[in-house]
């Protein structure tokens, strides 16, 4: 008998029929003898509807009130799922965040979970009940309702699994697992049976939007085995584990991520002296613009080219600041591009295998793709290329690293 | 400076525009130097929508879950109104039932308030804040959300006013006060400046659906002055007070209520012996059928006619039980009618004035209206007549008791 946390997202909760479908899935697990704790999101679109209503009154109103309003979305779905379970003969009991309680800090709309008292949920499980817990929400020390920010229900699921010392946290969603790359770009993309937390973090942050990144961090920190599974198609999904020990047997590369939302700026020919990076990044950061990649090349003439990428929405503002800084710093000028894309190769196997980068660059060169920018980490190599080559690059790399085939070792 | 509780119903909360209108009203009171605590209902139609959703899954599901779901309606409007107030420069803070807390028993969907800890609300008022409290809901000793049943927001308003020792509880609604009778039936109906709790109870229970009856009982019990005012039209409304001391100066009759939802059953010619009433009413009550009027006449032949009224929805079931009982008790048979209506004259002045009943019956007789059933209480005389005579009866009595004119004494 295992204790499993199930988390169902908004799409899975999108209608009475779907809620009843979820209830059947939970009932099935219980029939196999497992204990199940369920975490749910609001019906798809409901959180947006509620926040839109609040913003129509006061776009920058008190965030405590926004949370008070937004948290009702999950309060409805927990009740509905509990009713659906009981109708199927599965005793169930719904819990809002404060009823558990799930204690958070007071950062409304982006609160962080501080502690969970899982005592009632454990007692319910032992008494044969299925607790149905509202995701995305908690309570702060003043008794105010807080929300965890977008996708926070994944984090609730993982945090509850950690607090309950559950055997697994299963995230039910509308995809049947984590893929080697986006199947819409490369139809030969393959579902991964398992992947490490680190790889998942790189894939998630790079645009494979299967799981909220904070939930993966959380799962890694508390060593909660995490599984991404489809609500609608039966299957094993993808297990996200520590398993660093079996690393040698892992395939070299787990997947290929890409991100179309970036823009590149280069402050060219900056007289090279200590503090240049801070002089450029400081004002960008102060303007609340997030920077993704940063590359600096020292030239032969005592000047340096400083290149970074920002979200396309911030491009115009970043360019303006860049131009001002170029003048102030005596740089030659600013080059920039918005028709670019970042493609990243991710895999823990990289750590212990040389030659991955060169194999990647060779494959791209053979396909006639020019690389504008390179950045590497321990388990990731990212390149910035022209956007028109994106699909070609993804497919080329998918083939070069043999991702279509099932891994040769399990 | 007075402390006033405002209660706004679903119609007043029906849209963003209306919520902003309410915020302006509250802001106006504050500008006059008053402290205001606001109680609100869910947006009109929202509670029904939520309960329908729940019932579509499990029509007779766990009522704890129904409450969990239904309580979200007010949680949204408290947040929205707090935002609207703050936008107008009025500091505000929303409270769900459990955040106050408003403690109730555990009778889900029809909970009763046991106690209110008004400390936080009082501190808010003293700090210049307007607390906005969710009506209709509370929390039981197990930490479960409860609801007070339909119209429960009125009760919340009165209970809060009692707990805060407020100077007045103002119920804002879509009518501008309590009338001598329904203006749709008698266009000459007049708004009452004031009325006693007892009269209001009789008028409310008899179908003048301005206020939830429990809230009036509560207001009477805790001596909270209650005022019914229109959200949309400025005016003094109707004050509901104790003021029994000035009874001699009160008009004899306050109003005329009527109820079209009843059906009449007579078990005729029952052999008269002790226990007959219980023998008939017992099985009706066990079938969960509520009885309104009860009249028993002892005949000359040692038999008795036992007549009672039930809601028309329960008529078929009551008739079936009545027929079975008639056979068992050796009665002559069962007569019944659904095309009846109850018309009631209400007024505390009745207590000290003889002749009201005879004046009433004379007026009805003069209009050619036959009385089928009579029942009296200290401050009320009800008659059951044929439904087609209802409007005629109401107008006849309205005129006979001089209700069109302003009362001759204030």
From TrEMBL, chains A, B:
Positions with a binding annotation for ATP: 7-10, 173-174, 179, 184, 209-210
GO cellular component, one term: cytosol
Keyword terms: Amino-acid biosynthesis, ATP-binding, Kinase, Lysine biosynthesis, Nucleotide-binding, Transferase
Pathway the protein contributes to: Amino-acid biosynthesis; L-methionine biosynthesis via de novo pathway; L-homoserine from L-aspartate: step 1/3; Amino-acid biosynthesis; L-threonine biosynthesis; L-threonine from L-aspartate: step 1/5; Amino-acid biosynthesis; L-lysine biosynthesis via DAP pathway; (S)-tetrahydrodipicolinate from L-aspartate: step 1/4
InterPro entries found in the cross-reference section: AceGlu_kinase-like_sf, ACT-like_dom_sf, ACT_Aspartokinase, ACT_dom, AKii-LysC-BS, Asp/Glu/Uridylate_kinase, Asp_kin_monofn, Asp_kinase
Reactions that this protein is recorded to catalyse: L-aspartate + ATP = 4-phospho-L-aspartate + ADP
EC assignment: 2.7.2.4
UniProt binding sites for substrate: 47, 74
CDD domains referenced in this protein's UniProt entry, alphabetically: AAK_AKii-LysC-BS, ACT_AK-LysC-DapG-like_2, ACT_AKii-LysC-BS-like_1
ACT domain boundaries: 265-339, 345-410
NCBIfam families noted in UniProt: asp_kin_monofn, asp_kinases, PRK06635.1-2, PRK06635.1-4
Entry-linked PANTHER family: ASPARTATE KINASE (PTHR21499), ASPARTOKINASE (PTHR21499:SF3)
Stated name of the protein: Aspartokinase
Organism (species): Solimonas terrae
